[in-house]
Amino acid sequence: MTNTFSSFSLTTSWPVDFCAVAVINRRGETITHGDTAKTVRIASVSKLFTAWAAMIAVEDGTISLADPVGQEGCTVRHLLCHAGGYSFDGVNAITSPERKRIYSNTGIEMLAEHIAQRAEMPFDEYLHEAVCVPLNLTATVLEGSPAKDVRSNVADCALFTAELRRPTLLSRETVREITTAQFPNLEGVVPGLGRFDPCPWGLGPELRGTKAPHWTAPSNSGATWGHFGGTGTFLWVDPVADVACVMLANRDFTEWGMEYWPTFNEAVLHEASQR
Fold first, then answer.
1. In the beta sheet, which residues pair with residue 101?
2. pLDDT at 254
3. Residue 32, Cβ neighbours under 10 Å: how many?
4. What is the CATH number of domain 6-273?
5. Which 3 state secondary structure label does DSSP give 207?
6. What residues contact residue 121 under an 8 Å CB cut-off, 6+ apart?
7. Which tens digits make up the pLDDT trace of 196-207?
8. What is the predicted pLDDT for the residue at 1?
9. How many angstroms separate the Cα of 256 from the Cα of each of 4, 211, 260, 269?
10. DSSP reduced 3-state for 216
11. Which helix (DSSP H) or strand (DSSP E) does residue 147 occupy?
């Protein structure tokens, strides 16, 4: 079997100086492309790492999804799924919880601070101990906001993606809840894509649902979940196809992402599903 995908050649036309990819096919084999050791800031893909750590904290009893955090009626659950009523980066709530899906870095930062207080250790240390150490993510580090400032490389992200596809740190029941739409009827905006009604979100990851157009493949199932980042990064898991993909690049997500990513993801999905 070849250790590459022909679909990787599509990245040669991308307007980026750097791009690396890892795909996990339906047989669980990881196929990579590019410099897998180069570290970059993965932007909002960081939220998947933070969410995984948060749900570990839920399972070990450090926190609860029902813990109140922030304004009245807001809980850990609300913050994880962007239903807490906080703006993108403002410190004050702009609406009540469960009114809209308002994508919020602030909410994720509040969540991480809550974990830090309960665990009695800085959140970057908690993330390291809960996620990075057991998965042997030796190049992954949080250098600022837990919503956007994880630095990593494709080698580590491939290991993390494998964990998302076949979890070892969380129970099957917890992962089912992570990937189930929370407050499923909320409408909202996916930054850079547009407004969707509904705009499904899990406990951390964005859920594909019926969103269109979308950054994942047109043929990805509605059960596909993951995240993209503003530095030109994405990670998705399609549990129906049993395929996953992570890509790191070094150009901010603008029109180029929606121009190239869906076509690339479609080719990857097709190729990985055949193996």
1. 188
2. 85
3. 18
4. 3.40.710.10
5. strand
6. none
7. 999 999 999 999
8. 38
9. 24, 19, 6, 20
10. coil
11. none
Q: For residues 81 and 41, what is the distance between their CA atoms, to the nearest angstrom?
A: 22
Name, in order, each residue with C-beta under 8 angstroms of 257's C-beta and a sequence gap of 6 or more: 192, 215, 228, 232
Going 9 to 246 to 27 to 240, the CA torsion angle's sign is negative
Provide the token pair at 12. Answer: 């040669």
In this structure, what token pair is assigned to residue 211? 């969103």
Tokens 């993909």, residue located? 245
Q: How far apart are CA 171 and CA 133, in angstroms?
A: 18
Q: What is the rounded distance in angstroms from the CA atom of residue 78 to the CA atom of residue 111?
A: 10
**Cα of 149 vs its chain's centroid, Å:** 13
Taking CA 226 as the corner, what is the angle to CA 20 and CA 164, rounded to the nearest 5 degrees? Answer: 85
| CA dihedral of 249, 251, 257, 263, whole degrees rounded to 10 | -40
Q: Which amino acid is at 236?
A: W
How far is 17 from 249, CA to CA, in rounded Å? 8
Tokens describing residue 62: 């450090």
Tokens of 249: 């690049």
SS3 content of the chain, % helix, strand, coil (to 5): 35, 20, 45
Q: What's at 50, amino acid-wise?
A: T
Q: For residue 275, what pLDDT is reported?
A: 73
**Which residues of the chain carry a pLDDT beneath 50?**
1-2
Domain locations along the chain: 6-273
